[in-house]
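EI: anyone free to look at a 193-residue chain?
SC: sure, send it
EI:
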Amino acid sequence: MTKKKSTTARQPRSDALRNRERILEVAKAAFTRQGANASLDEIAKQAGVGTGTLYRHFPSRDELIEGVYRNEVEKLAAAAARFAEAMSPLEALRAWMLLLVDYIAAKHIIAPALNTIAGGPSRLHEGSRTTIHAAIDGLVKRAKRSGELRSDLDASDLLRAMIGVSHVGSGADWQQSARRLVDILIAGSRPLK
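SC: here you go
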């Protein structure tokens, strides 16, 4: 009699998940400081894991770089749900937009590393665009239903403004400008009286 294989995927152990998260955080910092050629052995060491553990989670440098990027996108998307549960609609949207500024800053920092992956970063950007748009769209719809945002506002308008300010200037103060813009956009998006 042959044993039937289980069709349900086994969930990773909690220590494996912690290792993965630690690797991603350390790798993000390393790629930020040293670029795409940061030592994977050093990343493993700083994360407190062996190189075998690093390669088990991320079999190649490209997969680690992609993992760092995807992790940032996932955190941003998860924050939308967290903020929606804990804050008023307008406060949740504002908090998420401020987090978007940090995400954009991290994306700029890791961009040189992303450019080294096979096929370039366009595939990653396309997938993240959908996830990010869904997150802000949910927050905008919630704020519109509450009456805190004007009914003709589209989430894409806010995203374009935030992405635009990040591309206009590469000066050191662009993040401060973007944070001010969040408040300006929120104020200008309130219903007309």
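EI: The chain has two domains: 15-59, 75-188.
SC: 👍
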